[in-house]
Amino acid sequence: MQFLLVSSPHRDTFGYSMPPPGLLRLGGAMERDGLPVALIDGAHEVARGAWRAEHMAEDACAAILERAREVGGLAAVGLSTMGATLPVALAIASRLRAARCDAPIWLGGPGVGGIELEILRRFAAIDVVVRGEAEETIVALARARLEGRGAHGIAGCHWRDEHGVARAESPRAPLADLSRLPDMAWHLVPPIKRYKEVTGELEGLVPIDSGRGCVYDCSFCSIGRWWGRRSRPLPARILADEVCGILAMEGARTAYLCHDLFAANRAHAVAFCSELVARGSPVAWEARCRADHLDRELLALMRKAGCWRVLLGIESGDAAVREAANKGMRSDVDLLRVVEDCAATGVVPILSILLGLPGEGEAELESTLSLASRASLVAGVNLSFHLPNPQPGCALGEEHGARAVRLEGIQPDMAFGAGESSDERVLLDAHPDLFTTFALLPRPEHELRELATLAQSLPELLMRFPRTFALWSRRQGGVLAGWRAWRSSKRSLEACVRSAHDAVLEASLALEHAQLRAVAKAGAGSGASCGEGQSSLAKEARTEETRTAQPRQPQSEAGRTESRSVSERMQGPGVRSRAIVLATRLDPQRTTLALLAGERVELDEAPRALAIVAEGKRVTTLALSPDARRVLDLLDGKHTLEQLERASPGLAAAARTLAARGLVELGLDAAAFEGAAACSALPSVPSPLATSSSGS
């Protein structure tokens, strides 16, 4: 008989692009103890079409029963759940019982935190609920099962006695030494390449169980309490081994460190980074951090070790709101400076922001939105806006759960891709107090709907058009007022800009359109950022014009764009320009500095040529001399270096010089052709504050 672990299904595209790291550890623990185990990643089954989204519980039940027939019976079924997947996990268990599956059903994961006993009281299909770290608990449970015993006496378990009364064993102490953790059992899930093929996720993210727990008790989060307010990183050398282990996985490109508090233990972070540097920094990776744990020195070391992106839980731009949420952030932390430090060291920051926390009025909301806008000017940020959920197991759930609000058409971020099937909806309606992950804090409906729309639409505007939207908002009297004016117009931002008849606004929009085209030219989905002060928009690398039915109006001289994109000209095997060329009177750096300082933005008297090119996750903007621009105009991809040199001596050398600046692709014969000469100087245009991810 076999033990079967099942990661409860959902439809969240980010989640199902990676295997479940917790279950990979549990599978490793069971195998290390000689226990027969298999694993089904439900989210991956949905992603590849094996399980229907509307019938996830039904199809999961069928797959589990089929596995039972194949192996001659299951010793137990272990369902792992987050808060968002708790309804479908319970629906799967109920269907298994209805199908006369007699295997014990165990339930665990953060989704059961704080409601373990209530689950047992209400859902007869569940035999055991496991709380907390489960590597030791599940082995003990499995051994007891094989010996014909139940969960009585096994720490970390909640179970039902012979009289149907829910019982709780003592909590299991967290592992003091994470070096005792088993290896992640990667062979239990499909190859990483298959995950990426199914989802189309191109960053090649691979989850690494890099640590456990959180010492904080933020009001909106249950993780700190779930782990007993303790934080333990995986030992630095072992973590480096696991990160470097993805090199052997086809389709893997980036290690995703899952621990919420990387760098909370600075000595550990330094040791881990130093270990990777000693190995040649062979793997790109990203981490989840608190802003008050980072500084430029540590970020520089992280970047040297291969880190390219960090998720920062900012929550609010207002210190009083953060304090009310028990964020525990140091009062002296300058959040914008942390963003600048990220950009200066080449690390892309993701700012996670919560809208509608208790104590947030319009003034506090404006502070938060202003911080997001200024951050988008300073660096190539990713912005992620959310509405808090009063989920079980956190302070907001305790205080507001009974009055939590479910609104049709607003799917809370914590529950994205879940709660949509008929099985789940029945449970959500029957047990609203258990499933407050699917609800919002009690506020008037019109406020919640506005915040939800704001969270969905504003980040894209700030990431795609940071300067333009900042200029637009200044005209309207603030970021919130600017967003409301744009929304009420029912037009695209481009149409709003055109109707303003403002040369500065038009010039800014033309520049940021050119940057977006540079990203598209570099290859949509490549991970390139969309421009100076903008973030990764791989799947959204389209210009604003394509989104509006408004007729396009002629551009002013200040905003006149001349595209030199190869994709807009005949392709060939020869030397070609990689750049978008823009004639503009707007100085990018001076504009950004003026916006940050609250000063007036002025246009130059005469236009100058800028070359904009995307490379990897950077967009570079260079000022072009007349000679350099003429060279770029000649490089249409139809001629090789040798042909160019024969037609115009010195042109090949000029092309090589431009290639060294990333503006030219030399073509198929570049390695065979030798030549060296200098062309006109290409003075660079520094990125905002000389710290943007755009490069210079």
Compact overview of the structure:
With 696 residues, the protein is of the alpha/beta class. Helix content is 38%, strand content 14%.
Question: What's the helix and strand layout?
Answer:
Blueprint: E1 2-7, H1 21-32, E2 37-41, H2 42-47, H3 56-71, E3 74-80, H4 86-98, E4 105-108, H5 116-122, E5 128-130, H6 135-146, E6 157-160, E7 166-168, H7 192-199, E8 205-208, E9 211-213, H8 223-226, E10 231-233, H9 236-244, E11 254-257, H10 266-278, E12 284-289, H11 296-304, E13 307-315, H12 319-324, H13 335-345, E14 348-354, H14 362-378, E15 382-386, H15 395-400, H16 422-430, H17 445-464, H18 466-476, H19 479-489, H20 493-500, H21 503-523, E16 561-562, E17 576-577, E18 580-584, H22 588-597, E19 608-615, E20 618-623, H23 626-634, H24 641-647, H25 651-660, E21 664-665
Parallel strand pairs: 1-2, 1-3, 3-4, 4-5, 8-11, 11-12, 12-13, 13-14, 14-15
Antiparallel strand pairs: 5-6, 6-7, 9-10, 16-18, 17-21, 18-19, 19-20
With strands numbered from the N-terminus, the spatial order across the biggest sheet is 2-1-3-4-5-6-7
Silhouette: globular
- Strand % is 5-15%
Radius of gyration: 28 Å
What is the oligomer described by this structure? Answer: single chain
Fraction of residues in H or I helices? 25-40%
Explain what you see:
- It is a single chain.
- With 696 residues, the chain is an alpha/beta fold.
- Strands 2-1-3-4-5-6-7 form a seven-stranded mixed β-sheet, with helices on both faces. It has a six-stranded parallel β-sheet with strand order 8-11-12-13-14-15. A four-stranded antiparallel β-sheet has the order 16-18-19-20, covered by helices on one side.
- It is 38% helix and 14% strand.
- It has 25 helices and 21 strands.
- It has three domains: 2-168, Rossmann fold, CATH 3.40.50; 202-361, Aldolase class I (TIM Barrel); 494-690, no CATH class.
- It is globular and about 90 Å long.
